[in-house]
Amino acid sequence: MKLTLKPLLSSAACALMFVSAVLGQDAPKPAVHGIDPSHMDTSVKPGDDFYHYANGTWLKSYEIPPDRAAVGVFSILDDVANKRTAALIEEIAKSNPKPGTGPRKIADLFNTFMDEPGIEAKGMAPLRPHLAAIAAIKDKKELARALGEGLRNDVDALNNTNFHTANLFGLWVAPGFEDSDHYTAYLLQGGLQLPDSDYYLSDTPHMRELRAKYPPHIAAMLKLAGFTDTDARAARIFELEKTIAGKHISFADSQDVHKANNTWKQSDFAAKAPGLDWAEYFKAAGLSKQPSFIVWQPTAFAGESALVASVPLESWKDLLAYHMIEAYAGMLPKAVVDERFNFFGKELSGTSQLRPRWQRGVFLVNGLVGDEVGKVYAQRYFSPEAKAQVQEMVSNTIAAFRKRIEALSWMDPSTKAEAQEKLNTLYVGIGYPETWHDYSNFDVKAGDAFGNLWRGNLAYYHRDIARLGKAVDKHEWSMTPQTVNAVNLPLQNALNFPAAILQPGFFDPEAPAAANYGAIGSIIGHEISHTFDSAGAAFDSKGRARNWWKPADFEHFEADTKRLVEQYNTYKPFPDLAINGQQTLAENIADVAGLAAAYDGYHASPASKNAPEQNGFTPDQQFFIANAQAHVTKTRDAALRSQVAGDSHSPGEWRSATVRNIDPWYPAFDVKLGEKMYLAPADRVQIW
Ligand SMILES: [Zn+2]
């Protein structure tokens, strides 16, 4: 699960920026190493409002760019990573790499995408053979074949958590629930173009309004692709998607792993989900030899399969054609790109501007040959010294967790033993992977943007299905080094911290250790905490789905965490809107535990001995200020409201209020009874 802070990706980047304009630009060297006193507002009492004490001046002076919903350390580092990646791609492209090599693939992929006139000149021609193949489907058996040929490994239930595919179903190749040593095939529900079944079924005015605008968009896309009778087709497609939506299980249920562990033999499908010709489907998908699958949402499979039999062939053919146009719209002429953005970008996401082409080119390269760029990125922007430094922080933070777990009076010895074993086997990837993905089966052709995306998706699919049944590489990464994020991989008992997040703002090799532990150290601690919490309790030290907690442990844990729910329920980002302490509980626990473990880890490190003051701040003060500065975010009211309503993380300001639960914060800032953030020792929540 992507369990850390949500990246505040810009909704649309600034206009008219070309790759050449960013070439040579680099992340500005930080003016100061460690905490930045110029961001602080020392007229605020730390015990009254620690977030504004640490960030007040920055918050007053920093403007949110007009095309963004929010800014913070995440979005700033994301800009840096994108510009660096674009510059690397351009550098590689200019070096005229040898045909067939990885660098040549990067160059051809990017340059072909950037050649807008070339794409314009081809018009809809690259799409036509695919549409003709759909038009030629004669019966439901051929339909099953086409649906099978369309299966891709485009979903991910537990790592990068993506439950959406517009194909009828989606494949995820990952370690098995019961046998985490071998790759298994997971199948997830699909078939919808809109993000979720709620968009078709919910009765809120907002959803009704969006739904009304959707069929005209479908019709416009069909028209651009040369179809006639587009309004009637659009109505049929919308109706079919809506019917599929009715068969889906909800997003909340999909996220519940306890409902997902359903193994079906290939021979079970015909009886458990009649309608689709499964033998034909699996054969076309290249999976006829796969003995069994984990079916994530069984009722949706039964429901969708039945629709293949009951809904007329012509409706399915229209749906397939429309989904094909959407999937490849980005590689087609501007009119198609714009129509897609007008609906999915503007109407659905509220963004005002399409990302500049060079950024979309970077996303394409990252998506199809990400590790090829990642290799160079890691070498250029993440030194062995920095890696060793983070490695030491991880070791010290894990050691702090060990002590804390051992000291728990309420946890059963057998639960403790498995928690310690989870720490023994935990793999923490730092900066970049030990082995890189191999793209040798991906044929990139200069001048064929559409074909490159088609072959890239297919090559990725073939690489993945070739792994089924084979031994799991527990050290495999699920993010590229140039990604600003961190991830917890429960079936591998592993964490990934890509190079792009290990940058000033979160981590600076030249900063005092206290500041690094307060910022990235607390994030490392946060992720480690997730391996033990209510989500981590579902997977054991080998990554198998097995509940290793004793029921009494759960009871105690829940009683303790109830006080944290109540604490967060009192926080009000708006007078009429409070944080939901239950909805954000898992993340708040991880914040408390992560900060506490990072503090212990810091004090166990040699760097903490005789550590220097910075600008008059003691090391402990630096530790806590750095934590609050890493959480700084400025968010537009509408976006903040939707975050409070739907995000599992508390907004940054309230995440930084975690310090109230940490004893050493009080003496560090001389926080006393009567100050607004003061909590009596008995009211401070300590989970681990
Ligand atoms: Zn988290």
Give the SSE layout.
Blueprint: H1 19-22, H2 50-61, E1 70-72, H3 73-94, H4 102-114, H5 116-122, H6 128-135, H7 140-149, E2 169-175, E3 183-189, H8 198-201, H9 205-224, H10 230-247, H11 251-254, E4 263-265, H12 269-272, H13 278-284, E5 292-295, H14 298-310, H15 313-327, H16 334-349, H17 357-381, H18 384-407, H19 413-425, E6 427-431, H20 449-465, E7 487-489, E8 494-498, H21 513-530, H22 551-569, H23 585-604, H24 619-630, E9 633-635, H25 637-646, H26 652-655, H27 665-668
Parallel strand pairs: 3-5, 6-8
Antiparallel strand pairs: 1-9, 2-3, 4-5, 7-8
Helix pairs in contact: 2-24, 3-4, 3-17, 4-17, 6-15, 7-13, 9-10, 9-16, 10-15, 18-19, 18-21, 18-23, 21-23, 21-24
Tell me the helix content. 40-55%
Distance between the termini: 21 Å
Estimate the mean pLDDT confidence.
92
Strand order of the largest sheet: 2-3-5-4
Strand content: 5-15%
Provide keyphrases for this structure.
688 residues, mainly alpha, four-stranded mixed beta sheet, three-stranded mixed beta sheet, 27 helices
Your description of this structure?
There is one protein chain. This protein is mainly α and 688 residues long. The protein is 50% helix and 6% strand. It has helices at residues 19-22, 50-61, 73-94, 102-114, 116-122, 128-135, 140-149, 198-201, 205-224, 230-247, 251-254, 269-272, 278-284, 298-310, 313-327, 334-349, 357-381, 384-407, 413-425, 449-465, 513-530, 551-569, 585-604, 619-630, 637-646, 652-655, 665-668, and strands spanning 70-72, 169-175, 183-189, 263-265, 292-295, 427-431, 487-489, 494-498, 633-635. Strands 2-3-5-4 form a four-stranded mixed β-sheet. A three-stranded mixed β-sheet has the order 6-8-7, with helices on one face. Helix 3 (73-94) packs across helix 4 (102-114) and helix 7 (140-149) packs parallel to helix 13. The longest helix is centred in the middle third of the chain and has 25 residues, at 357-381. The model is unreliable at 3-26 (pLDDT under 50). Bound molecules: zinc ion (ZN). Zinc ion binds at residues 3-4, 526, 530, 587, 590.
